[in-house]
Amino acid sequence: MSNNCYRSLLRLPVVKYVGFSRCCSWIMSTGVNLLHTINDASLESPFKYDEIVMAEHRKGRKRLFRLTVGGQFASPLGIIPYAQIVGTNERSTSFASHQVLFYRPTLEDYILHMKRGPTVTYPKDAAAMVTMMDIGCGSKVLESGSGSGGLTLFLSRAVGNEGRIDSYEVRSGHLEIARKNVQAWKGSWNVNHLQTWPDNIYFFHQDVIKALTMPTDVFDAVALDLQDLSDVLPFVLKVLRIGRPVVAYLPNITQVITTLQHIKQQSLPFSLDRVVEVYHKLWHIAPSKTLNFSSGATHSESNAKKNDYDYYLARPSHAQHPHTAFIIKMIRIE
């Protein structure tokens, strides 16, 4: 933990924190925590049955589906049997008559288009949370509020086979959706990758504060996606290691203020590190029409071709991502 003057404390002097690190054969990239090794499989291999595939229409509309025996892709432009997609390489076949491109979704694509129960933790926020939690291969993470399983997958990828994610969800319907989404992604991944997705997620249909058998000081980080943190924060103190972060995902600023007031009133030993919103401003970049600066009779055909060129126009996209949530990071200081 840094002791810079801008840090806001809720209680006690700032204590020095030594960053957590472990040797690991998997390497995280900054910001999104991509595991290098699990991406080493050939992405040029043909589509196989049981894979999840993304279909993108010419105008950017996307749809997620699983390749099943006897299935077919239906759109207003017609029907494409899955058997015609299986065996082709991704992005190599556009089925031009249907104006559809098929490819394997990234984790970001999958989370944005998978089946939802509660609102998902958006990938831009999940990436920021994973970074703020300072986790790596072998980390043990507690998640309270499984939601639809999006953040759970980001955490799973970050901690690798040597790590562990304990995810608690009190609502049975949400837990079932999270389990199915996680299993669907893992199953599709394992079909086409030499190294399987880490088997490190453990779901619990239980209120996390009632997990009486949980050992103390065992977790390297805690992720909270709950409406009210007042009851769970005292419990977090028992299971989170000293000097380690708890990161919470809160939809509105009132919840942030209420949480900080509760911590101060109850004299809970947490140091406020930061409160952030993550914004991505989308830009529309498109080539213009070709301009011809030749004057016909006064220029040769070769000069006309030489002077013809494409240039790009840029403007902010009409469709922008609005506010999604506030992310609050606190450190246990004793």
What is the topology?
Elements: E1 8-9, E2 52-57, E3 62-66, E4 72-75, E5 78-81, H1 82-85, E6 100-103, H2 107-113, H3 123-133, E7 140-144, H4 150-159, E8 164-168, H5 172-192, E9 201-204, E10 221-224, H6 232-239, E11 245-250, H7 253-265, E12 270-276, E13 283-287, H8 301-307, E14 312-316, E15 326-332
Parallel strand pairs: 7-8, 7-10, 8-9, 10-11
Antiparallel strand pairs: 1-12, 2-3, 2-6, 4-5, 11-15, 12-15, 13-14
Helix pairs in contact: 3-4
Sequence of strands across the biggest β-sheet? 1-12-15-11-10-7-8-9
Largest sheet: 8 strands, mixed
The overall average pLDDT, rounded, is 81
CATH class of the largest domain: Alpha Beta
- What global shape is seen? globular
Quickly count the domains: 3
The helix fraction, in percent, is 10-25%
Unreliable segments of 5+ consecutive residues: 1-42, 293-307
- Element order, helices and strands? EEEEEHEHHEHEHEEHEHEEHEE
Instruction: Count helical runs.
Output: 8
The secondary structure category is: alpha/beta
Assign the CATH architecture of the largest domain.
Answer: 3-Layer(aba) Sandwich
End-to-end distance: 12 Å
User: Rg, please?
Assistant: 24 Å
Number of strands: 15
- Strand-residue proportion: 15-25%
CATH superfamily of the largest domain: Vaccinia Virus protein VP39
How is the CATH topology of the largest domain named? Answer: Rossmann fold
Descriptive account of the structure:
The chain has 3 domains: 8-37 and 121-277 and 322-332, Rossmann fold (3-Layer(aba) Sandwich), CATH 3.40.50.150; 52-103, Vcp-like ATPase, Chain A, domain 2 (Roll), CATH 3.10.330; 283-316, no CATH class. The protein is 24% helix and 22% strand. Strand 7 (140-144), helix 4 and strand 8 form a beta-alpha-beta unit. The protein is globular, with a radius of gyration of 24 Å. The chain has 334 residues and is an alpha/beta fold. The model is unreliable at 1-42 and 293-307 (pLDDT under 50).
